[in-house]
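Any chance you could type out a protein's amino acid sequence plus the matching C-alpha cells because I've never seen that pairing?

——
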Amino acid sequence: FQASLKRFRHIFHHGNTELHVVIGNHDAGFHYEITEKKVSRFTNELQSPHVNTVNVKGVKFVLLNSVALEGDACWLCSKVETELKQTAIQLRDCPDIANFEECHTALVTRPILLQHFPLYRQSDLMCSGEDAMPIEDRANVHRERWEVLSQESSKQIIHLLQPRFALSGHTHHGCFLTHDNGLEELTVPSFSWRNKNNPSFVLLVASPHNVTYRKCFMPRESSVLILYGLTVIGIVCCLLRTPVANVCLFVRLQKSHLAFKNT
C-alpha cells in the first residue's frame, strides 16, 4: 500500500495543488472484501472522508464513498448512509434538524457529485465519446453493485443530493450520458495503458450554474508501440548498412590505388 501511495503522490500531488480523492474497489476491495483496516488506512493517509463536501470558489462538490452503498445495513454502509443524509441537510441549510425528512428547504446550489462507481445504467448503449466501450460490447447488461450502483442507491443519491452533474469511473471506458431525470454523468476512463489503448484525463471548468469539460488524451499505446518498432527497425538497418558501405568504400580506394600505381 505504501509503495502505491508513494507513486500516486509522485504523479498527482505537486506543490500547493489541492488533492481530493474518492475511494474505489481497488483501494479497499469490493463490498465483500472491505475491512475496517483497509478503509481507515485509505481515509487516514489521503484525508478522504466517506462523504466529503468541498467548496471551490463557490462551486460545491460532494465526494462520496460509493463502495459502501451496498444497501445491506453493514457497519460501513450504515455509517455512510447516515453521513449522506447529514450532508443533504447541510446542503439545504436546515439548522437544528437531525432528520432529513423534516428538512423542506430547497437546494440553493446543486452540487457536483464525484464517486468511483457510476450511477445505475442498464448498459452502455446510450454512452457517447470516442473512448467509450467497444460497440460490440455496449449492449452487455451491467450487474448492479458490480459494474454500476444499484437502482435503489442511485435513486437515494439523486434524491438526497440532487446533483447537477456527476463524475464517476470504474468501468475503464469513457461514457457521457443523460439519465432519465436529466442528470448528466461523465464516466472517466482508466488512466492506464494496461486497461485502455487511448487513456485520458478530464479538465473540468465549473461555475455555480454551468459545467464544461475537455478530455485530454494520452498517445495511443498502439501508436507508441508502432513507433518503437519502426525505430528499432531503422537502427538495425543502419547498423547492417554501415559495414557494407565501409567495405564498398575500401574496395573503391584499393582500385584507385592500383590504378595510380599502374600509371
Q: What stands out?
A: The mean pLDDT is 86. The two ends are 82 Å apart (CA to CA). Strands lie at 51-56, 59-64, 112-115, 165-168, 175-178, 184-187, 200-206, 211-217. The longest helix spans residues 221-262.
